[in-house]
Design goal:
Blueprint: H1 2-6, H2 15-29, H3 40-56, H4 66-71, E1 102-103, E2 108-109, H5 117-123, H6 141-153, H7 163-174, H8 191-197, H9 202-213, H10 223-239, H11 241-263, E3 269-276, E4 279-286, H12 294-314, E5 319-323, E6 329-331, H13 338-342, E7 347-353, E8 355-360, E9 363-368, E10 376-384, E11 389-398, H14 408-411, E12 412-413
Parallel strand pairs: 6-12
Antiparallel strand pairs: 1-2, 3-4, 5-6, 5-11, 7-10, 8-9, 10-11
Helix pairs in contact: 2-3, 6-8, 7-11, 9-11, 10-11
Length: 414
């Protein structure tokens, strides 16, 4: 019955459904309630209070009696220690420079630029140095219970802990209010599951929602905190308390699932494809809501030259400029070499777009269109700054037809 309640969307259940659930748990819960007078909110609160007590329960391990132990037949097919052959060996220290997993460029132990990128992404890079993880304070028994229930009952992403499962749960949590595709996915709509992923129990959920809806009830909190609470109250009036609650909890859920991902060494890489000018290109990129493993960064660094070469093959008949922070375009020096610049890059991405511009009162307006030869193709080279990628070079290739960008001549600097 408890698992049924955890998988039931109590907030959207009818009064008759809630009454049936209350009848089923009332004897075990032991709290009196008058079903004739109780309204739907009282029934819902009763069930939430019951679930809160169930989360705290720990099922004791059954004791094995002496008679049961006597009935167990012990079978040991392993050979005795005296039967094992005598082994002789010599410890030889391997010089660091001779270790095939040592990358001398940055003194880290993982495969370097000569790695088979596709095989590396599928099988993962071997790393001598263990990844030091700090467990988030919010990752607790409620988080573990929610993860266990989702894996046990399965979702649209299966019941195996892998990259697709984590990415799918993160997506569902981000769009929690719009998930209505299947009964199994409604588990994510259940408050105990969703808030459990963030490390909260039902009592904390109720308190949080009260603060979001009516911060004025908490008059004893400091004035600076009241200002913040009033802000969330205004947002709650606009979006609804539940929506604000989901937004606030998402980042905590992402931290918890990122910790789980790194703990199990699950890669954030995804194989993607892009077709520009009828030239298909397949490459690896990462899911920006997941954590980057050291091996992921090694793959992305190896992909950067391939992306730069793809950009060059697409833009041989384009004018290529450097795009500045203010979006102005600057001509490249005569001795500029993209492949020299990409040697310093840890990551690269490429993007193509076409827009049908038309004159308007404010200048020009337009919408995206599909063209065989795009209006512009952009490539960005980035460096790793410790926790994220930071772009240091943006190149924009502009189509030679000036009618596609009527004001282009005014934006170029010599």
């Amino acid at each position: 019955m408890t698992d049924l309640l955890f998988s039931t969307d109590i907030e959207n259940a009818t009064k008759e459904q809630l009454k049936s659930l209350v009848k089923a748990v009332r004897e075990q819960f032991g709290r009196a309630i008058d079903l004739r007078k109780a309204d739907i909110n009282e029934l819902r609160q009763y069930l939430q209070d019951y679930l809160a007590t169930q989360v705290e329960e720990v099922t004791p391990e059954p004791e094995v009696t002496t008679s049961e132990i006597a009935e167990i037949e012990t079978v040991n097919e392993s050979p005795a220690l005296s039967e094992l052959p005598t082994l002789s060996y010599e410890i030889v220290e391997l010089p660091t420079s001779d270790d095939p997993d040592f990358n001398a460029a940055n003194e880290e132990f993982y495969f370097g630029d000569r790695a088979d990128v596709e095989k590396a992404a599928e099988e993962g890079f071997y790393c001598h140095l263990p990844l030091e993880l700090e467990k988030p304070p919010s990752f607790n028994k409620y988080t573990e219970r929610s993860i266990a229930i989702l894996l046990e009952f399965g979702t649209a992403y299966g019941n195996e802990l892998n990259a697709e499962w984590i990415a799918g749960i993160l997506k569902d949590c981000a769009w929690r209010a719009s998930i209505r595709r299947s009964i199994s996915e409604k588990l994510i709509l259940s408050d105990p599951i969703f808030y459990g992923l963030a490390g909260h129990d039902l009592e904390t959920i109720g308190l949080f929602n009260r603060i979001v809806r009516s911060p004025e009830e908490f008059g004893d909190i400091p004035k600076d905190m009241q200002k913040g609470a009033n802000f969330y109250s205004n947002i709650g009036n606009l979006l609804g308390g539940e929506a604000v609650s989901a937004i606030c909890q998402y980042h905590t859920i992402r931290d918890n699932l990122n910790y789980l991902q790194q703990l199990h060494g699950i890669s954030s890489l995804e194989k993607r494809s892009k077709a520009v000018k009828d030239r298909l290109f397949e490459y690896f990129d990462y899911n920006d809501q997941m954590a980057l493993l050291p091996s992921d960064r090694a793959v992305l660094k190896a992909e950067a030259p391939r992306i730069a070469e793809y950009f060059q093959t697409l833009t041989s008949d384009y004018e290529v400029y450097r795009s500045n922070d203010d979006e102005s375009l600057e001509r490249l020096p005569d001795d500029f070499c993209l492949m020299t610049a990409v040697a310093e890059a840890d990551y690269a991405w490429i993007y193509a777009q076409s827009i049908d511009w038309k004159p308007s009162k404010d200048g020009y307006s337009g919408g995206h269109v599909d063209r065989l030869d795009p209006d512009e193709i952009t490539v960005c080279l980035s460096k790793w700054d410790g926790d994220q990628y930071d772009g240091f070079l943006y190149l924009k290739a502009i189509h030679f037809d000036p009618s596609r960008r009527p004001w282009l001549a005014n934006s170029l600097s010599s």
